[in-house]
Amino acid sequence: MNGDESHRPARPGAALVAGFGLALSSTAFGLKILHDKGEFGTAHSRSAFAILLLQDLAIVPLIALPPLLMRPELTIAVDLELAGRC
User: Fold this and answer.
1) Residues with Cβ < 8 Å from 23, sequence gap 6 or more?
2) Mean pLDDT of 42-48
3) Residue 42 DSSP class
4) 40 with 34: CB under 8 angstroms?
5) Where are the domains of the chain?
6) Nearby residues of 61 by Cβ (< 8 Å), 6 or more positions away
């Protein structure tokens, strides 16, 4: 193994799934912190909530991504065709 391979994850799909989970948990932490500080009704908390909500909604199409990434025999054209059927 050379120096370039030492920092790569062995399974990129596993790293994606872990990242998605951490992104979702940030909503719970962020809202809890705003509530504890009494800033839940302020303008910046509404902006933060909107961003966190959009991040949570973005997870829906990302859930379909790992299975497609795990099939190296597929091309991007086939991936898009499969995604359009869902």
Assistant:
1) 55, 59
2) 91
3) S
4) yes
5) 12-85
6) none
